[in-house]
Amino acid sequence: MFSQNNTKFKELANLFNELEKTSSSLVMIDILANFFQKVSAEEAKLTAYLLKGKITPDYLGGEFGLAQKLVIRAIARAYNLSIEEVEKNFYKKGDLGNVAEELSNKKDSELTIIEVFKQLKQIVDSSGEGSQEQKINILSDLLKKSSFLEAKYIIRIVLGVLRLGVGDMTFLYGLSKFLVGSKKAKKTLEHAYNIFSDLGEVCYEALKYGLKKLEQAEPVVGIPTRMMLAQRINNLQEIKNHILGNVFVEYKYDGERIQAHIQKDKIELFSRKHENITHQFPDLIENLKKAFTGKNAIIEGEVVAINKKNNTLENFQILMTRRRKYDIDKYIKEVPIKYFIFDILYINNKSLIYKKLIDRKKEIYNNFQENNEINFAKCIITSDIEEIEAFFDKAIENGAEGIMIKDAESIYQAGIRGWNWIKFKKDYRDELADTFDLVVVGALYGTGRRAGTYGSLLLASFDPKYNRYYTFTKVGAGFTDKDLEEIPKKLNKFKINKKHHLVETNMKADVWFEPKLVMEVRGAEITISPVHTVAINIIKNGGLALRFPRFVRWRDDKSAEDSTTPDEIYQIYKIKNK
Length: 578
Ligand code: ATP
Fold this sequence. Notes:
Bound molecules: adenosine-5'-triphosphate
Number of helices: 23
Radius of gyration: 25 Å
């Protein structure tokens, strides 16, 4: 049975240590299943956050706010050394976790998981005047009490460099294995995770109340639901292979997807990555308040930048100038926005995710009144391909990037990329003009005009099935001088000293990065490659490579796990090579 919330932190440090030694998902699953035997539901919940170097689910933020310099001061204070001595050590080892591990002479400690978590929370919570000193004090006290292995991982947690590579699906698989001895419960756990995007909470509820409760998971206002995603087609005739009846055809707006959680006295906005981005759009909040006539709701829509002079739709890059912490009022005036509502997941204390799209649409129309800034996504309902084609042309003419085609009878499938939603973009019509969202995992130094900076970037696709990044291409073209200048600024904070252990490639790179940043590239052709590894599990005698790639734009709204998957790339390869 579960322990009583007094499990030692050393169990968690041992877990980290074991996980660090492997990159095999199957081994990770066994290690996790074994660990769940030792802890309470509460401790398992905290473990889910700590494994990712956090103390909260993503949507609650929770930053430690401890830069390297401050951590060096905390280590110096804990072990009675000068800052210079710690810095010298750091210079030699390149990892402050290892520095603390070596400096600590304690083999064992009395710390419990709950206690360490509380201290870490205090570090996160201390803010305002004197908070730096407070954070350093808490951390150094914690280090004094820690064994060497514990000190190593505490430092890596607060610096955000834990990098254990346990994917969400691997974690849920481990939990399933513990609960039922196999992956049988993974579907239920994944469903609940898709509904409330909080690995810790899913873990807690599964251990405390059992799987039955999770099967009935429903959205909660204030907690982001993972978004339903679309498949792509290259030819409108393909629609009939996937949807037989009526479809809603909507403009595919080129902005950012926002899930708005509306309550009487509070509106919160969540991004596709579940970050709380409420503070970025005070104008949207005000306009939503005016447009909403119900009690509470969860809706989805696309926020799009609008050209001030002629009231036309701007593209994604222009909207990204609104992604900022400061000068928000100034940018509200400079880059006005509109929000186009296309779905609703919850209304007046009732979940709508199991209702048909056609009924969900009615709830949007019944509970919102359009105004200048809040609009319903432009749509038609039809089953006629010619009508869809004509609507597509109109969408492009009016500044949309394509259309979304949605089965009118379909439920809202949180977190699923299925055929109930299909996207068709302008680009897809041109042969070999597909775009891909890929993760930067490495870089090669430039020569000539690019000497001293990066000449090309190594890009990969994340495969959730294998919890691995497979490289697909090396991009050096399509960057403006401004882009080139920005690249090191964006990437250098993710530099690591060797290839990330979850990256599979036969390519060499001068610099390796933690897989974090996503960029969109356009390619000319997909071929089989001896060095790239995308779809290697399908093709076997090689992977797929994208030839003649060009940079299109950064996709700061996507996380690494949201990149175009090897399965999607393989589908495109198959269509193009029929
Ligand atoms: P993409 O890179 O093509 O924007 P994605 O991976 O972000 O795709 P998908 O579900 O595959 O997400 O494609 C739909 C995306 O298009 C949504 O995430 C959303 O940002 C955007 N979008 C614009 N208009 C709509 C609409 N009417 N319905 C749904 N999504 C829309």
